[in-house]
Amino acid sequence: MQAQKLRFLPFLFGILLPGTPQAAQTCNPNVMPTTPENAFTDHGNGTVTHNRTGLMWMKCVLGQSGSDCTTGSANAYTWDQALQTPVGFSYAGYSDWRVPNIKELASIAETACYSPAINLSVFPNTPASYVWSASPSTYGSNLAWLLSFDYGYDYTYYKSNDSHVRLVRGGQ
């Protein structure tokens, strides 16, 4: 039970909510990168494949577009809305996009960096905030897992709250 309480601390204080202004990314040069640029294949169409997992990711979170993800702004969704976003969605010639599970989402977090904890060469202009996973929580039926791309940690969050979405295809 104690671990569950610790996971909720950021939410109790309103930290990292979507739309919060972000500081510049900081990376520790003494830590080996977990998601170097050469771990991905850029397809030149707004998608990248993570070579280790074989998963194809959208470079931008939903709502952003362009080669550097600076067009538009990141949309925020409740968990139920997030799970519905891939329905009928087509991007880069594919229509089998889905919301990733928490382990898949964690596979693109860059643990050598924070604010955001992601490789910005591969996933440019990523907000340093929460991104939903498709994984429900066993802590309660009103909770689901998400990943904080501020520090790269996973958390449980109320499904009725808003967070960002990054879609994936393949795997499972």
Q: How would you characterize this protein structure?
A:
- The chain is α+β, with helices and mostly antiparallel strands and 172 residues long.
- The chain has a single domain, classed as Mannose-Binding Protein A, Chain A (Roll).
- 13% of the residues lie in helices and 23% in strands.
- The protein contains three helices and eleven strands; from the N terminus they run αββββββααβββββ.
- The strands form four sheets. A four-stranded antiparallel sheet has the order 2-3-4-11, with no helix packed on it. A three-stranded antiparallel sheet has the order 8-9-10.
- Strand 8 and strand 9 form a beta hairpin.
- The protein is globular and about 40 Å long.
Q: Secondary-structure blueprint of this entry?
A:
Layout: H1 2-12, E1 26-27, E2 40-42, E3 47-50, E4 56-58, E5 64-65, E6 71-72, H2 79-84, H3 102-106, E7 113-114, E8 130-136, E9 143-148, E10 153-158, E11 168-169
Antiparallel strand pairs: 1-7, 2-3, 3-4, 4-11, 5-6, 8-9, 9-10
Comma- or semicolon-separated keywords:
single chain, 172 residues, alpha+beta, Mannose-Binding Protein A, Chain A, 4-stranded antiparallel β-sheet, 3-stranded antiparallel β-sheet, 11 strands, 13% helix, disordered N terminus
